[in-house]
Automatic annotation (TrEMBL):
The protein's name in its UniProt record: LysR substrate-binding domain-containing protein
Family according to the record: Belongs to the LysR transcriptional regulatory family.
Pfam family, one: LysR_substrate
Organism expressing this protein natively: Pontibacter rugosus
Record InterPro entries: LysR_HTH_N, LysR_subst-bd, WH-like_DNA-bd_sf, WH_DNA-bd_sf
Protein's UniProt keywords contain Transcription regulation: yes
Domain of life according to the entry: Bacteria
UniProt key word DNA-binding: yes
Domain named HTH lysR-type: residues: 1-58
């Protein structure tokens, strides 16, 4: 049994396709298949059920693959020990970010991080929370930026800051005359929300405490299923009603649109934004540098909030 064979094993489990796994490992499919067959003969068990499409691990194969991932992660820590002795950080950092954070948070820190770490290549993907967790578990991402807690035992959470929710209200709406509003004043029938599947939608419904009434139950005949906070802003600006937004999404609004932003009464509803990694994560020094750069880029009023102030999360 070799580390190379274990890498091929994990690649097939990740991609669920022998040809794709071979491409990922930069070898031919026959070479990969031969090495896995040798490994199965040595172990005396079948790791993959090749009769299924896509290929799936057998029951015992699942346990073997899980242990293979641990072995490979531990072996890579030797390289990390050496890398940590060097003054300059280098390598590739793959980041997954949820859509309600990406356009507002990434621009705050990314250029500063790259300037300080010129030998690091950063790859960013906008993904839903479930996709980020899955890719972390399959080592297709190094770190995620999302809202916690996740309550997932395979994931380690590194809290960064606590972001307030604000309301964005059409000037013709009665609540637009108030400087601050309370959650009890929100009427979900007038509230524009994101599609199901977005964690931000669940957070908004949690604030409203009204259960999951769909956007199609809003007044009038428009049933608009949006996956974008920017689209929700435009609907509120040009049509009617209101929506809830994360605080970072309104930092750069022009003066005339800032008048549509209304804070909640204290205690404000907040969400916890964290870096998340797999429990056996690597690139610790690189991820710590990323964490410090993000925290430094956040406005002081957001950075200074404490966890005890959070009253609603995902």
């Amino acid at each position: 049994m070799t580390l190379v064979q274990l890498e091929y094993l994990v690649a097939v489990d990740t991609h669920r396709h022998f040809a794709t796994a071979a491409d990922h490992c930069f070898i031919t499919q026959p070479t990969l298949s031969m090495q896995l067959q040798k490994l199965e003969e040595e172990l005396g068990v079948q790791v993959f059920d090749r009769s299924r499409v896509p290929v799936r691990p057998t029951e015992i194969g699942k346990d073997i693959i899980a242990q293979a991932r641990i072995v490979l992660a531990e072996s890579k820590k030797i390289q990390e020990i050496v890398q940590n002795q060097k003054q300059e950080l280098s390598g590739e950092l793959r980041i997954g970010v949820i859509p309600t954070l990406a356009p507002y948070l990434i621009p705050l820190f990314i250029m500063g991080f790259l300037e300080k770490n010129p030998n690091v290549k950063v790859v960013v993907q906008e993904l839903m929370t479930s996709e980020i967790v899955e890719k972390l578990n399959h080592e297709l991402l190094d770190v995620g930026l999302l809202v916690t807690p996740l309550e997932n035992k395979s994931i380690k959470e590194l809290p960064l800051f606590y972001e307030a929710f604000v309301s964005y209200i059409n000037p013709s709406h009665p609540l637009a005359q108030q400087q601050h509003i309370s959650a009890s004043q929100l009427d979900l029938s007038e509230l524009w929300v994101l599609n199901e599947g977005h964690c931000f939608r669940s957070q908004v419904l949690n604030i409203c405490n009204r259960g999951g009434r769909a956007a199609s139950e809003q007044g009038g005949h428009l049933d608009y299923k949006s996956g974008s906070l920017e689209t929700l802003k435009r609907i509120v600006e040009t049509q009617h009603g209101l929506t809830l937004l994360p605080e970072l999404s309104v930092l750069e609004l022009p003066e005339e649109k800032l008048k549509m932003v209304h804070q909640f009464e204290e205690p404000q509803p907040l969400r916890e934004v964290s870096l998340v990694v797999h429990r056996s994560f690597l690139k610790k020094k690189l991820i710590e540098a990323l964490k410090q750069e993000i925290i430094a880029s956040i406005p002081e009023n957001i950075r200074s909030r404490k966890k005890e102030q959070v009253i609603t999360v995902g």
